[in-house]
Design brief:
The chain has helices at residues 22-48, 60-64, 66-70, 88-102, 114-133. It is mainly α. The chain has a single domain, classed as Up-down Bundle (Methane Monooxygenase Hydroxylase, Chain G, domain 1). The longest helix has 27 residues, at 22-48. It is elongated.
Length: 135
């Protein structure tokens, strides 16, 4: 069995006035905007039950998180908030992300080679036959 662990820090306050590097700030905000779109689309897709195009390829961040957000895995989102009036916009935005992400539910399925699955089912059937026959 193989596992992956992906940890992503979704940046903190990225206001242009607060950061020294404006270009990097703009790129981070674009990625966060795309992540918000992906989470919203996934939430709406699961709510309605309809298959909708999910824009994972619109940013590197969402491409990296594709398996974690809407794929075949368990996901956990930890939101850190600052209890200060100075950061109320960021706090509300973080709570919005978290609320939308809570509506996304993945159904992880164990990936297994089809031939091994058939062999295992035959073994179980054979053992059940032997037990029923009294061997």
């Amino acid at each position: 069995m193989i596992s992956k662990l992906k940890l992503v820090d979704l940046a903190g306050s990225e206001r242009n006035a607060d950061t020294k590097v404006i270009k990097e700030s703009i790129e981070i905000n674009k990625s966060l905007f795309t992540l918000r779109n992906v989470i919203t689309t996934l939430m709406n897709s699961q709510r309605t039950g309809k298959s909708i195009y999910i824009p994972y390829r619109d940013s590197k961040l969402t491409s990296l998180l594709k398996e974690s957000i809407g794929g075949n895995s368990y996901s956990l989102m930890i939101s850190c908030l600052i209890p200060s009036d100075n950061f109320i916009e960021e706090t509300l935005s973080t709570l919005s992300y978290s609320t939308k992400a809570a509506y996304i539910s993945n159904q992880p399925v164990r990936n297994q080679d089809p031939n091994i699955r058939i062999i295992n089912s035959l073994k179980v059937n054979c053992l059940n036959y032997l037990v029923d026959a009294g061997y």
